[in-house]
Write a structure and sequence with these properties.
By secondary structure, this protein is an alpha+beta fold. It has nine helices and eight strands. Helix 6 packs antiparallel against helix 7.
């Protein structure tokens, strides 16, 4: 093999590792193809045990350490980069006691992958709306509160989420007031009530 072929192969492998590193070891067939892996190379990687097939068009590098949140990361990758949001984000931050029965995620584009026990919300999120956990994206505490204020959670639940966020320093009053100021009347009013509950 000439040096150019070896170098391209190493670059693809490094690119795949970097992609998987941000997604708890997971990656899609589309991501592998974008990096230049052919269907034959994908088959050989699976046969050699370097990759593990997790689901249709979803793979994981082997061996990859297991974590408590790998199911969340897997679903976000399956849902083409969806961001953990709403009740699930609050739960992961330790804000309130929501105990969601579904994984709540937000996606900017329509999601065409069917997956059980996932609630998909539609919104275009900017970089300031998200944080990276090392395995998946999650809405910031501010965006999480604003999403919950817009959604159907009770005022009591929102009050608890806001109180916890203030108590543990994930949010401060001025930032929350400023964030709510540009939102709908409903969000402004509900966030104002939640802040009043902790005055």
């Amino acid at each position: 093999m000439d040096d150019g072929v070896v170098r391209r192969h190493e670059e693809r492998e490094r690119g795949l590792f970097e992609c998987a590193l941000e997604q708890a070891g997971y990656f899609t067939a589309g991501q592998a193809r974008t990096l230049g892996f052919s269907p034959g190379e994908i088959g050989r990687a699976l046969g050699a045990g370097a990759w593990e097939r997790v689901d249709r068009d979803l793979f994981r590098l082997s061996p990859w350490p297991h974590t408590d949140l790998e199911d969340v990361a897997r679903r976000c990758v399956q849902l083409q980069g969806a961001v953990v949001s709403h009740q699930s984000a609050a739960e992961l931050y330790g804000l309130g006691h929501l105990h969601p029965q579904f994984l709540h995620v937000t996606a900017g584009a329509p999601v065409h992958v069917r997956t059980d026990r996932v609630a998909v919300h539609r919104a275009d999120l900017g970089p300031a709306d998200c944080e990276h956990t090392g395995a998946f994206l999650i809405t910031t505490p501010l965006r999480t509160v604003l999403d919950l204020a817009e959604s159907g959670v009770s005022q009591w639940v929102l009050d608890e989420v806001v109180g916890d966020a203030l108590a543990i320093g994930r949010l401060d009053r001025p930032a929350l007031e400023a964030g709510a100021a540009g939102q709908s009347v409903r969000v402004e009013r509900r966030v104002g009530r939640a802040l009043s509950a902790w005055a």
